Amino acid sequence: ITGVGRVGGPDALFVRALGNSLFFALIAVPAGVVTSLAFALLLNAPVRGRGVFRTLFMLPYMLGGVATAMIWSWVFNPRFGLMNRLLGGFYRLIDPVVRLFCDTGTAGWSVPDWFYSPQSCKPALIIMHLWLGGGTMLVFLAALQRVPRSLSEAAELDGASRWQRFRHVTLVHISPAVLFNLVVGFVFTMQAFDEAYLLQNRSQQDGLLFYVLHLYRVAFESPYRLGYASALAWVLFAVIAALTVPLALWSKRIVYYAVER
Q: The whole model's pTM is what?
């Protein structure tokens, strides 16, 4: 794809957008799978009121959209946002310990500008993605409830530790859910559009210029380069295939599908 950014040269925005989307996908998806699995394990435990906790964890996922993006823009506001207030409180909490190694303590430590910084805007969006992991957690919760309890009990009688039971019994039986969440996660994060479109600003210096947002601008903003946008869509298809097809092929070795008789 050449000749768009400057005559005879590559499109710099294409490279930037693809890099932003790949960074977001490769960090947010594995982190989201791990955190969602951790919450699913907690919510699968036999505790009182777990139905209420499951509902609370699902609410952010069900309330996604413009309202959620606006709420997070306030949370990450560098002046009055909750996130920087919590960071400021944490700095004050560890200040006595830091002063043992540095005379100035945490007085010179700054808080991020989050969505108003090219360096911090993507980490802020990754945190927001983790908070919206209710759908992934629900898939894991359904898979955990299908793990035969008798196998875990038998492993415990044989002297297996809690980690060994999780690694060799639970994780093996929920491996199809892990594969599903990874594949679907990569597909959806590479197509991320809403959050980037709503939370973008000039201070980010194209830090949230994701691939689909760039494709949208090329296709539907003057001068309406629909042919180039079609080429970008095919590149997106190739990138998603490159991320997901190896996972599907690799799954034949690591994914266990129980056969019910």
A: 0.84
